[in-house]
Amino acid sequence: MPVLIRSDNNHRELPPSIDQNPLFSRSKKSGLLESNFDCDLHKVMVEVSYWTKIQTLGFVTIPHNVQRLLQRKEQLRILRENVMLIVRDYNNIIHTIDDKEKSLFSEHLDILDRTIAPGIGKYNWGSQADTFVYACRKECQEVFSNVKKFQNNVMKINQEFEKISTSVLTNVQKKLYLLSEFIR
Question: Could you tell me which of 105, 118, 113 has the C-alpha nearest to residue 139?
Fold first, then answer.
C-alpha cells in the first residue's frame, strides 16, 4: 500500500468498529492528504505485542511472519508518525490559503505536489522512505513560510490602507488672513 493517499482518491470504506472514531476518520474535503496505513495491520501489531507477553507462559506460539512484523514494529511506527507529519503540514497549507492565494501559489503547490507524488505512487510501508520524508517536510515548511510571509505582508498593507483612509490629508481653516500675514 502506498504511504499517502489523496482524499478525493479514497473510496475505501472503514470497518464499522472504527468508522466513528475521529482518529481514523477520513476527510470529506478533496485534495487533502491522508495517511494510508492499514488499520488491520495496526490492530495485528497491537495484538502481537500482547501475544509476546502470553508466549512466555507457553499458551501461544507466534508465527514466523508475525515475528518478522514485530521486529519492524518500531520502524513502521516511526514511518507512520513521519507520514502523519507530512499530512499535517500539507493539509495545514491547504487550509491556510484561500482560492485567490491558491492561484497565486499554484507554482509552489505544483512543486510540492511533485515532491509528495512518490509517496502516493512509489513508496509503500515496506520501503525506506527517510529521504522522501525529509524532502517533503522541507518543501512543506518552505511553502508554508512563503504563504505566511505573504499573508502577513497583505495584513500590513491593509493596515496601512486603513491608516491612510482615516488620516486627514488637508486641514482647511476658515480663517481670513491679512495680506501681510499671507505674504509672510
Answer: 113
